[in-house]
Design brief:
Mean pLDDT: 88
Number of strands: 12
Distance between the termini: 19 Å
Order of helices and strands: EEEEEHEEHHEEHEHEE
Helix content: 10-25%
Number of helices: 5
Shape: globular
Low-confidence stretches: none
Strand content: 25-35%
Largest sheet: 6 strands, mixed
Radius of gyration: 17 Å
Amino acid sequence: MRISYCALLRIRDDDRFVLFHTSSRPGAYAPPGGVFKYFPPAVELLEHLGFQPERHSSRGVRTRADLRGVLPLRSFAGFRQWFASGAYREDAQECLRRELTEELTEVGFPDLGDRVREVGLAHVRTVSEGPYPVSGKDYRQARLFEVHDLVVTGGASERLREAVVALSVDPGVSTVVSATAAEIVHGRAGHSLIAPHTAYLVGTRRTGADLPPVQ
């Protein structure tokens, strides 16, 4: 079976949510975030479970130690138990700070990354999918999405939020947009295609099928 365990960051401006262009799915937008990474002490445990990490040649070392890959269905309960323990892996704060720093560079604003290490997060919801059969594939899939709010208490987090919100409404910036809850559920904000998992920013269900990533 295939597994993918991720954290997503919700940055709000009134009734709108900030989304970044996704390099793995050109033309689509999604919330900042990505797959949790595991640390070296977890390698032996994951190998014992039969975990084989998924590699994307287009993303190189960025996918190293990602909790995205395949493992035997019989090992899924053990994998979930290990993940829930939090041992030898990133927590949501580590994951989202790393991902946000990387993605700010990808969308063309690396200078904003200096503010990321000071931001706080608040858990919103965790959504689990599967295991379920995948159409056209010979495996089942299970995914987890931890959604967290950017906590704005002044200082660096306020300046960062103001900066990305300003980018999202700037007609000269094509890599950062904003969308309402209704637009997210619909799957489009104007000409911008919205990745289906973005729906977890506003609820526990989504309606669209997955967009295929660049291999």
